[in-house]
Amino acid sequence: MSRWIQEGDNVDITNERKKGTFDTERMSAWIHGGPEVLKRRREILSFVKSIDDFKDPVPTEFMSREERILNNARKVVAMTDNTDQIDGSDFFGEGMYYQALTMGRDLHAMSLHYVMFIPTLQGQTDDEQLDEWLTKAISRAVVGTYAQTELGHGTNLSKLETTATYDSATEEFVLNSPTITAAKWWPGGLGKSSNYAVVVAQLYTKGECKGPHPFIVQLRDDETHMPLKGIRLGDIGPKLGINGNDNGFLLFDKVRIPRRALLMRYAKVKPDGTYVAPAHSKLGYGTMVFVRSIMIKDQSTQLAAAATIATRYASVRRQGEISPGKGEVQIIDYQTQQFRVFPQMARAFAFMAAATEIRDLYMTVTEQLTHGNTELLAELHVLSSGLKSIVSWDTAQGIEQCRLACGGHGYSQASGFPEIYGYAVGGCTYEGENLVMLLQVARFLMRAAEGVRKGTAKLADIGAYIGKTGSKTSRLTTHHHYTDADLVADLEHAARKQVFRAYDRLKKAQQHLSPEDAWNSVSVELAKASRWHVRVYLVKNFLNKVALAPQDLKFVLTDVARLYAYDIITSSIGAFLEDGYMSSNQMNEVKEGIYECLAKIRPNAVALVDSWDYDDKELKSVLGRRDGNVYPALLEWAQNSQLNRSDVLPSHTKYLGPMMKDARSKL
Amino acid sequence: MSRWIQEGDNVDITNERKKGTFDTERMSAWIHGGPEVLKRRREILSFVKSIDDFKDPVPTEFMSREERILNNARKVVAMTDNTDQIDGSDFFGEGMYYQALTMGRDLHAMSLHYVMFIPTLQGQTDDEQLDEWLTKAISRAVVGTYAQTELGHGTNLSKLETTATYDSATEEFVLNSPTITAAKWWPGGLGKSSNYAVVVAQLYTKGECKGPHPFIVQLRDDETHMPLKGIRLGDIGPKLGINGNDNGFLLFDKVRIPRRALLMRYAKVKPDGTYVAPAHSKLGYGTMVFVRSIMIKDQSTQLAAAATIATRYASVRRQGEISPGKGEVQIIDYQTQQFRVFPQMARAFAFMAAATEIRDLYMTVTEQLTHGNTELLAELHVLSSGLKSIVSWDTAQGIEQCRLACGGHGYSQASGFPEIYGYAVGGCTYEGENLVMLLQVARFLMRAAEGVRKGTAKLADIGAYIGKTGSKTSRLTTHHHYTDADLVADLEHAARKQVFRAYDRLKKAQQHLSPEDAWNSVSVELAKASRWHVRVYLVKNFLNKVALAPQDLKFVLTDVARLYAYDIITSSIGAFLEDGYMSSNQMNEVKEGIYECLAKIRPNAVALVDSWDYDDKELKSVLGRRDGNVYPALLEWAQNSQLNRSDVLPSHTKYLGPMMKDARSKL
């Protein structure tokens, strides 16, 4: 019997849980990394539930921005007060779960403190600086953020406008924002919460610009928290999501900071203004890969939440009759509903598998690097950039599909979807805009293609398919006999073809254009090649994981993995048909495969989403609640509305009431 | 010289406007229906700008829900006070424009009063009822809404649970909500603003249920505005969009209303309880078609706004270098940016053309109906349902593409995108959930397919292609010689093929399943057929309109129309290749056609979006402002943030400040 069934639950959802043909607890363990991890999740959950400071006085949807900021500040202090409750070294697992349970889908006053400020101190300070600043940051004596992006400047760091000009007379830098477009813009927690920041500015010394460098800068007075002289800062206003955070702006009017504010692990400026260039590259691929594996985990968690809500709601919502007189059916029985929701569930599984794998690869590469082996590094960096792009986009689209599948109630904030979407879709833009990321992947792919053509390619496993010859036609006979190997070969064919299509077009364009203009003129094709590269990886990785799953889980996971792969193929039919690689009969087999997967997943749908192990506290959705008792909960939720605090609003008293009264008097 | 150029504008945007190769004023006239219409638009605009009550004290993004509700109430009274300023008979033109300028992208307290309450009174009352209620409604002596949808019941009206039981002893109906799922849920303005509603309830008399009927019901006291006895109502809480409206819930506890509360134009109940069934169908296809043509206009207006913002911003935003040393480029010069944004612009043009056409067809059909000619009615109804579905979905996706194309700033509410998206995407669900609509279209298509197979089909122009034989292969040679007729034939081929694919699968499924289960088992294929049906119409209609455009506009409109059509073809490559109808060389021609369209549209992009004639008051976007002076405006906009009212927030004083102080004391 599923552990998810309790007395008093909605009957339909209980029946769904009884229908499941596998053990959800074993599946949860498989997803999360073993029974021990599950046990720890539940310990963390009960701890969080036991602490009053983690409770929201009303659902956060009903709070104003000011209220959310205040609510989040209380929670983040409580959260960081209690970090001994979790294994701090396991941020990917326990850390993310603990933060999700306590802070929900929002950034908080110390998000950038932990994700950017502290890591930058660790990576960029010299030993003396590290002692001073890391101690302060970790003890929470200061709250820091990371101020790099400017109002007029994002991706292209070389064009940042903020200047830090060295004055050897006083041994100080003068920080200045020469224009409005130089305003630092977007950093989380900058507007109101932080009192320190790492600020990236163009370093000038002895009349020369040495490019962008990081400085640690005090922004607000320790005691009064008022902005220091010459510093203008504030909140940048409401956004599509994360409105519990005070993303901020920051302008400097000739603010003097000490020479040692420059983080000096690599570049240095001596007291007399002599610039000492860094001895070796500052680039930390490793950290970027790690941050992106966190992002992929986070995105897949959001998509899984959306799929959980839509699947559970579809099992309790009854609407319309399929057979007249037999009563209204659960909407999960409509093929169109399954076609909308189940592929999102499959994607979430695939993305979770990728997140774990990338984290493990990161560990491997880190280990290899200690032995001077850089073989995998470039490919892994490229892959993680591409994954970030594909996963965040598919996640955003998938969340909206799940929301729309819930009809009108999906539009209400009670569903949780508006918050999930607003939070997750930001991932398409931050940590590298998706198209910029794809074009970085394409640089790698074009080098690989060139290598293959010249016979000099050295490709690690991830990109090895680019150098393969492959079959000229698909080996698919019927979808019942479609092996994993053949399926992967088909996807690799499509990917390889697009890589070389882009490569050939690039070469051709280079004949009459500058290298840069040629690149731009084929960039749509390049981005397509990158998408294929990443999707091949996602399918391969998911199939590999499933192949290793225990027998009692493998059969249902296979349905999910196949749905994921078939959905990719049938969304790009042209890629398989245009060179005669597949026949339309073969493509029809794949289409039939989808319908079969939908039908096979149907009885296991609720059990599958249960297996992700969302507690209602994490899911934050009236539609997706475990017990399925959606309707009374919606009515109760609505009572919190700000507008329901009084029966008659000023809008009536001041405007609509007098209007009607006047009209009545004239009737 | 473009009328859009003014002194002090951003230099880049001015240069773009100088580049345009056509007269924007002539294009605006073509889009909106002639120079006279343009003149009237500008008169309405200056009137609205002249009235203080239409001014928002701060941008609405910074208002709480309570503040928005109050702000909207003031504006809606002013708006309806001044309806003499516009031609009330031209809701599609002047009415929608006036409302957009005054109310922005939000519903208001009287939205349903005008869109549902009054039309229902007009359609469903007998003469005596009409006299009483229409007078009150039009004079604004009452504010009404339309309460049909229930918490547990949407599309399937026959399962509504609210009951109206006739009591002949007192000649009253007793309104009751027997369960929580019977709560009326969603009606606009129901929560706080309205004092009357048309309520749809199951009519019981003499112990028999006669199905759902409309009743006019007073909800709140005329003087005090307090809910009447037995009536429980309120706001349903925040949503993804339209939060300036009090969408509401409503529960009846045995509320007695007079017999004559039943709207008696069709069905009647006599004093003794005898039910008189309606003499003929109540179905008003005409009104539904009209409402949907309004929706399509509205949706296309939102997509055009998004495309305007993204195009203008892309012309002033400079980022990255294409050629090193030549300075940062306008991001509109990136092919990937053009590929993201320009197709959205093209869609908006196509959808506007469809909206006008549907409105005109509606007039024709109405005229035909007065002569008893129903030939076009069913096809038109079907087409308008399908258009609503395709247009709202493509609009939602298009808006998000435009937003993402603006990078980080697109995520800020300063961009306008979050509001545009939240408002527009609701259209995927209301007025008939999109998939339900597509399956209605499919009913027509399956009847048509059956007729064609049996040789009995009588198809009007819209569906005539279903009965054509068509060529077995595409006549496309190169995209430079691709005629409109050949292009349309190609799309018709794809549509026809999918219609018959769905039909054949349906017939096959019917051999072993009940008709209803068979239908469900092929519903994904049915929905696909419907999408093709509508897209064929959209392309044909757009090409036809462009063919009739004046020569000096036609050349640029042709680029836009071709981009629209090619984008559809290359998004469904399989549909053209799988039966050998097109070769991959032919498909490559279409792909090349897209790149050529992008390059040709590039210099006209800003002029094209200017031609939609958005004033900044309507556009409501810092990124899309006419003058292109985006950065100072962003900084100014942010000053309005609720969080910027004081330098130090309670979140610091209560939580973060003490945390840091404590840590400092221990250092």
TrEMBL record, chains A, B:
Keywords: ATP-binding, FAD, Fatty acid metabolism, Flavoprotein, Lipid metabolism, Nucleotide-binding, Oxidoreductase, Peroxisome. GO terms for biological process: fatty acid beta-oxidation using acyl-CoA oxidase; lipid homeostasis. It is found in: Peroxisome. GO terms for molecular function: acyl-CoA oxidase activity; ATP binding; FAD binding; fatty acid binding. Residues 146-255 form the Acyl-CoA oxidase/dehydrogenase middle domain. Its cofactor is FAD. Residues 486-661 form the Acyl-CoA oxidase C-terminal domain. The active site is at 431 (proton acceptor). The keyword rRNA-binding does not apply. Residues 285-446 form the Acyl-CoA oxidase C-alpha1 domain. InterPro entries: ACOX_C_alpha1, Acyl-CoA_ox_N, Acyl-CoA_Oxase/DH_mid-dom, Acyl-CoA_Oxase/DH_mid-dom_sf, Acyl-CoA_oxidase, Acyl-CoA_oxidase_C, AcylCo_DH-like_C, AcylCoA_DH/ox_N_sf. Pathway: Lipid metabolism; peroxisomal fatty acid beta-oxidation. Residues 23-138 form the Acyl-coenzyme A oxidase N-terminal domain. FAD binds at residues 149, 188. Its main location: other. Gene3D superfamilies: Acyl-CoA dehydrogenase/oxidase, N-terminal domain, Butyryl-CoA Dehydrogenase, subunit A, domain 2, Butyryl-CoA Dehydrogenase, subunit A, domain 3. Belongs to the acyl-CoA oxidase family. This is Acyl-coenzyme A oxidase. It comes from Caenorhabditis nigoni.
